[in-house]
Fold:
Amino acid sequence: MFDYETLKLIWWALVGILLIGFALTDGFDLGVGALLRIVGKNDEERRVIINCVGPTWDGNQVWLILGAGAVFAAWPVVYAVSFSVLYPAMLAALFALFFRPTGFEYRSKLTSLQWRGFWDWALTAGGALPAIVFGAAFGLMLTGIPFHFDAEMRVVMDGGILDTLSPFAILAGLVSLTMLMMHGAAFLNVKTRAAVQTQARQALRFAAIAFIALFALAGYWVIYHLQGYHIATIGNMNAGLAPTDKHVVMAVGAWMQNFYDMPWMWIAPAMGFAGALAAIMLAALPVTAFLTTGISVTGVVLTAGFALFPFMLPSSSLADHSLTVWDASSSEHSLGLMLIAAAIFVPLILAYTTWVYRVLRGPVLVEDVRRDEYGMY
Amino acid sequence: MDSLVEISRMQFAFTALVHFVFVPLTLGLSFLLVIMETVYVITGNKIYRSMTQFWGKLFGINFAMGVATGLTMEFQFGTNWAYYSHYVGDIFGVPLAIEGMMAFFLESTFVGLFFVGWKRLSKYQHLLVTFLVALGSNMSALWILIANGWMQNPVGAAFNAETMRMELTNFSDLLFNPVAQSKFVHTVSAGYVTGSVFVLAISAWYLLKGRHIEFAKRSFAIAAGFGLAGIASAIVLGDESGYTIGDVQKAKMAAIEAEWETQPAPASFTLIGLPDQDTMQTRYAIQIPYALGLIATRSIDEPVEGLKEIITRNTARIKDGIIAYGALQQMHKGQKDAATIALLKAHENNLGYALLLRKYTPNVVDATDAQIHEAAMHSVPRVAPLFFTFRIMVASGFTLLLLFVLAAWAVYKNNFMDKPWLLRMALWSLPLPWLAAELGWFVAEYGRQPWTISGILPTWLSTSSLTAGSVTASFIAFVLFYSALSVGEMYLMIKYARKGPALLNAH
Structure:
């Protein structure tokens, strides 16, 4: 059907689509979680906010689960290295994520204000922490992380467990947090009315401004300060390669090479900025503003992907052992099989997800949660 | 390294067993909800809608913990078992990815609509939603067990020396792995039993208290019928049938039965006794003639292999694997000529057995006879833990069979209301399905030792390159988080179960 090299490329695009799917859908759930205590001023308002995402966040989270599952299946070694070398960060995200299924389901099942207050904080952490960690993970993909392989392809960490904490990673974490808060606020702007909507709109503008500033700063950093990576020589990209069989060079600004070679790629960062700017100006048109924050989120994920390509996880301690789409992919057989599965199931998923959102369309009002104490989240 | 492996194993066992506290209830209760709602749609009797809604509330409380603890399972292969993930991700990752696309998306997308969609959907649409949640969760189990079945009996894969990993060669072998098939049927049946006992026990409690009689009677009847079918399937299609396939499965079987020597066919079954690994004997054994041969081979003329014979064969496999290991080392040093490649190919099937030696010597090629002997002696699991846990699981299963036969009979006779002893028995049986399920996983996975992938990758080599300290720290965090969340879950579950269907009247 496709040759191996093309299959590797297709899977790079597919995982990218899954990550964009995650950022677009569960992204606003994370943002809404982070904003819960900021936009919701009292118990009733918070309950309105929770019910905006309560019935759908679980389905959205599967984009993350499937994204990670696809990385495991399509790039096993990337999964192995990233999850084990970034051990503390991954576990922090995981523990924070525990609070979402439990928080959404349990918070309003008791009337005690202490109980609800605890879960409000838990949901805030469950939104904000993963948003920061996933952003930081992208930051670390750009800086590279210290690892190499031994002869048996066992990952060896070069450096302590906290060496991975770099200022650029923290900046990337904040870009992600403000971006998803912007997107989450835009979603609440659509799903709520009255006071909550006014507060959401305000949060949308603040988050968008902060995001634009941080995204610009990150761009400046990547262009003028950050060491990028570039493949100098590599074997036959159409064959099964070991990640150790190539030569990689590092240079400041190397991440920009793809943009210089293929100027159409500039559309990605342009989407990132323009979408956020438009959201600030069009906040009074909720649906339009939500679409523009979606454009912004898509643009940001694409920007990172385009800059990195074909790298997925560069090694800062032994650049030749960096993981790229050419030498970290699964076998041709596995990639082909999963492509067939994805071609069947992803359209189905999109179809029934759309149906569910259609059924649940319309705003969530304070009166709704007042009326239906046991029927809602 | 030893302590890293041990603490990683303990963490995996802990997180997986906690996850499986919540999973079987989801598997079973989801189909019970489908049954109740179907009766509502057909008869129009609103009490069945209340039943669906009330048991659905309890389902939701449980489901949340299943989702939370399930996340850990996906993270953990990468965080704690990085070498495993690299070595077999090409195969193992495929069913996991398909599970996400085919099953988990379905379940998770519709579960929210199940709770809030009652007023927005027609009753047929809502029933469809409930059915899709049940279908999604059960298909999820199918793909997970295909992945797990491959760990027990790795078919359809081959080693690639270039990429230093196992790669998928035949998807339909992976899909139709007989071990996976029998595990799936056994596991979901156990889930149906769990869901049924849950509904049966709580309904019995209402009946004993004289509360919600009409509601509890109907719930009891549905659970009794569904549970009887479930327990019959779990016992008859017990996944022991899969234990005759593959060498490691055979070793597991021999350990469960404390079969030290190969018995002439048909083998007798050791009902109970005291297995001793050092002397390789079972003391005080009470045996039933013919029974093991029938259970294990479904025949009276095939022998069941004993552990001593398996160890002898494994010794030979280790020695053969050393040749493959030596060839691979030469290739790593750059000697990639046809002869070396052919040598590796010829002995590749036993490469995993040579890897067992890595625990006892860094230099596999020059392993001494003593080291080979030690590796071979540890190439089968420890007998006593398997011997006893298996018997407790089976005893729980048969107790539940008795319960469901009695309950279904009483439902048929319509006199279970007059049998408080039966209602009490139902109530006190509540922990049994969980006990059986947890022990069942213990038998399946502890019995796979010393391998993560049977015959291919030893557990000892499967971990990440972490320090034991950081895994210990995360283990403590897991225990704290899981304990706190479980306490919250149990509190809500008991509170809502006590309130009973009355809570629905708040609408």
In short: Chain B is about 70% helix and 5% strand. The radius of gyration of chain B is 25 Å. Strands of chain B lie at 157-160, 165-168, 269-276, 281-288, 451-453, 457-458. The mean pLDDT of chain B is 91.
